Amino acid sequence: MKHLLTTLILALPLMAAAQNPIVHNQFAADPTARVFNNKVYLYPSHDIPAPDAYERKDWFCMADYHVFSSDNLIDWTDHGMIITQENVPWGKPDAYSMWAPDCVAKDGKYYFYFPNAPRQGRGFAIGVATATRPEGPFTLEPEPIKGVMGIDPCVLVDDDGQAYIYWSGMGLRGARLKGNMKELDGEGIQMEGLPEGFKEGPFVFRRGDWYYLSFPWVRGDRTGGKNPTETLAYAMAKSPLGPWDFKGIIMAEHANHCWTNHHSIVEYRGAWYLFYHHNDYSPAFDKLRSPHIDRLFFQADGTIKEVRPTLRGVGTMPATHRIEADRYTANGPTADSIAAFNDPSNPFLGWHATLTKSGAWLTFADVDYGMLTGDAYAVAKVRADQNSVLTLREESAKGRIIARIDVKVEATGQLRRDQRGRWITVTAPLTALPKATGTLCIASETDGPVSIDWVQFKNREHYFTPAAAGQAQALPDSDGFIRRWTVLEPIPQDIRSNVVFTDTWLRQTFAKTWFKDQAVMVPRDGQKTKADGKNLTWHALDSEHYNLKLFRFAERWGQQAYGNLFWLVTVIDSPEEMTGVRLAAGSNGASMWWLNGEEVLLLSGDRRMVRDDGVSPRLTLKKGRNVLRCAVINGPGMSDLCARFIDGNGMPVRNYTINK
C-alpha cells in the first residue's frame, strides 16, 4: 500500500537576490533544476548541522527535501518540505542520508527520485514518490526501485517518451525504465568511455542530436592521503546509454577547495544555465553547501565552454529590489573593497562590503531601472565611523552620478559616540535617471572605510503634495482631520527602544531648545532653520491621507528613515470663537501638542497611530488665527500622526480653514 506524505506544504517567499547563492533560508546542495509549467523548479538536497545522535559530525547530514521555484531566476519561493526520512516506509528513519534527488514529468505526473539508506541491508537504495503538481504533495512508493544500489539518481525522458535512469554506484551506471517510471526495464550497465578517477552525481540531458552525460569528477591523485576536490566534467554520445566520448571540464575545482560540486543543466527561455553548489555560508566546513546559477554556453560543434563561477549569478535585477551590494561582479584592488559576514554567527544574514578609501568601488551588473520615474530615490543601508559619502554611478567609477549617499554621524561638530560604526538606513534623491538597464557602480568619496549592505531604488508614492501648489487655504476632510502641515526635516535621534517614552523623559526632550523660536515660529514653506547643528528646511504639505506619514517624509527629506524627531506647525483660521472643543490625536510613537503656545495633549509610551488615541481637555479656538504645534519622536517604528478637533458629542468640527 502506498504511503501518503501528509506534510503541510507551505509557500514561503525568500529574500530576493540575483547573486549567488540563491537560497538564503537554509543550506541546500546538489541542486537539480527542471522546467515545469514555464517555471524553474529546484530540487536540492538539504544539508543540516549534524544532530547529537548522528555519529559523523564531520560528514554530510541530510534528513529531508524541499522544493523551490522561480519564474525569473531571481525571486525564489520555498514550497516547504516535501519528504522527510521519518516518512520513507523502506528507509532508515535516522540515517540522515537523503542525498542528491531528481524530479521529472511524464504524462501529467511528477516523479521524484531520491536515495536513502534502507532499513534492511547496507549501502543505498533509490526510491520514488509521485505527485500531480511539481511542488507536491508527493505520495511515497512502499519499496525502492529493484536492481538499483547507489546514490544521486538522474532521469532522462527522451523525445520519444522512453525514460532512462542513471546513478552512482560502482562507477556511473544507467538503465531503461519501464513505462510506469518505477521499475528497470533490464539491468543497469556501466557507462563506458569516461575518464579514470572518482565520479558521482550523473546528470544527463539532450540537446539536438547529442546526449550529454555530466558528472562531478576528481581528476587529481587520491593516493597517499591526498584529497583533491571535484570538478564538473562531461561526455557526449549519440545514444542515451553511450558509448560516451569524454570531452573535458565544465567547471574547474572550487578555488577554496570545497571538496564537492554537484550540478544540473537546464534550458530556460532560450538560454542554458548551470546549477551547482558551493560552501559560501559555511566557509570553514564544506559539508554545508548552497546552490548557485551561472550561464552555460555551447561551441558550434556542441561542446560546452568552461563555466567560470561568478558571485553575481544570473538574471536582470529590478532596481526596486534590494541589491545586495556586498559581493560583486567586479571591484577595484582587493584591499580596496572587502566582503565580510554581517553576523558570523548567522551567515544567512548575508554579507556587507567595506570600501576602504576614496576611489574604492564595486559594481553590480544587469540592473533594470526601467520602472523608475523622475520622482524616484535611493535607499541604502550603510555604516561608517566618520562622515562619509558614497556615490551611485552608471557603469563605472567614472560614470554619471545617479545619487549621492551622505552618511552623517556628527552632531554640533562632534562625532556621536553612539552612532559610530552602527548600521543606518539613508535615503537620497536621484540626481539623474539612469538608462533602462545597466551596471550599478558604488564608489567611495571618503578617505576612510565606509560599509554598505544593500541599496534599493523606490518610486515615491504620493503620500503628500506641496501645499504651495494648491489653494492658499484648505479645509479639514469629511471626518474633520487636518491634512495641511508645515513640517521641519527630521532631526535624527539615537533611540534603541521606545520604552524610554515616559512623561518625564518626553517633557525634558521636547523642552530642549532644538532650534531658535521653536515655541513661537510660524514657518514658511522652504524656510531654512538651524536645528541641532544642522541646516534643515520646512515643507508645507497636504497629506493624501487622513494621517501624515512622517516615515515617508523622512525617507524623502531625512538623513535616516527611523529614529527621528519631527516638528510640525499648522495655522487654523476660525470664523468665530469655538468653546468646549477638544483636540483628538494619534501618533506613532510619542508626541506632544500645543495650541496657541499652551500644552494641550501628551501621548507617551510606545504607541501605534490610532485615530483619536488621545483627547485633550476642553479648549477654545479663538476667532481668527490659531497655531497648532506638534512634536513627534520615534525610534525603530514607522512614524505618522493624525489630528482633528471634536465637539462635546465627539463629532468632528469642520467649520474652519487651514492656512499655509
Your description of this structure?
The chain is an all-beta fold and about 650 residues long. Helices cover about 5% and strands about 45% of the residues. The strands form ten sheets. Strands 35, 36, 37, 38, 39, 40, 41, 43, 44, 47 and 49 form an eleven-stranded antiparallel β-sheet that branches. Strands 22, 23, 26, 28, 29 and 33 form a six-stranded mixed β-sheet that branches. It has a five-stranded antiparallel β-sheet with strand order 1-10-9-8-7, with no helix packed on it. The longest helix has 9 residues, at about 505-510. The termini are far apart.
Give the gist of this structure:
The chain has 660 residues and is mostly beta strands. 3% of the residues lie in helices and 43% in strands.
